[in-house]
Amino acid sequence: MHLGAIATYPVKSCHRLEHERADVRLWGLAGDRRWLITDEQGRMLTQREEPRLTQIRPVLAEGALVLRHEGAGELTVPAEPGDLDPVKVWRTTVDLSRAGDEADVWLSTVLERKVRLYYLDDPTRRPVNPEYANPDDRVSLADGYPLLLANTASLAAVNDWLAEECPAEWPLPMTRFRPNVVVEGAPAWAEDGWLGRRIRIGSVTFRAPKPCDRCVITTTDQETGARGREPLRTLARHRNVDQGLLFGLNLIPDGTGEIRVGDQVTVLD
Question: Per the database record, which ranges form the MOSC domain (predicted)?
Fold first, then answer.
């Protein structure tokens, strides 16, 4: 098995960045989900409510975030601490820095609604769900865990089901599932057997505490923002475990280091 792809998502729910290498930090991959958009009342916005977020293409520059949109050009936002507001990210409330009026206005124009941009200036502020983690585990602004792993053979299995049962939405790309790391060379659904074990990618070791329960974001075309019905209908038929539609495996780093496309992937324990 080897690492086939790496991706980060600088702004939660916006477009991805693809990498040949990435630095693993204890809270996730460097640069992953350090920024968050909220509505005017400070409520977190994701593609669940706003699929147009797919059209915002962030790039990380030296000490800054560059936001790009086809109709609005680009805006550079300094990655600096600012005034802190408490923002609820699922079950946790975390203090985030206001990015400033210019970013708020730019994004509000793009999304045609009043929004705010926030920055997680200190990525050690947010703990991982203690039910599945150690007390000192931390996560950025990802849904719940520092990294998400997916398996190309499992995607091929989903696409086989789609070809038979819903050819109108076949095939689906891996980008629908928004993973950080993609494993190649493993059998389909091998990751089910990795739950509770340790996985080494290159020289970095991770724990696998929980499978990933998928939501409506997987039905959203990550290039256009168009929304369909798959893969949730197919996952509901074939991968429904205790009312969770499973695809992918959450990871928590045990240490730091660099991972590269092509690195060997080994299941330990």
Answer: 122-268
Rounded Cα gap, residues 203 and 255, in angstroms: 9
Q: What is the residue whose two structure tokens read 């205790």?
A: 242
Residue 74 pLDDT class (50, 70, 90 cuts): very high
Domains and CATH numbers, the chain: 2-13+19-26+129-267 (2.40.33), 33-119 (no CATH)
60 CB burial (10 A radius; 0-12, 13-18, 19+): middle
Handedness of CA 232, 237, 241, 243 (dihedral sign): positive
β-pairing, 21-25 vs 28-29, is: antiparallel
CB-based contact 265:200 (threshold 8 Å):
yes
Taking only the tens place, the pLDDT of each residue in 118-133 is 999 999 999 999 999 9
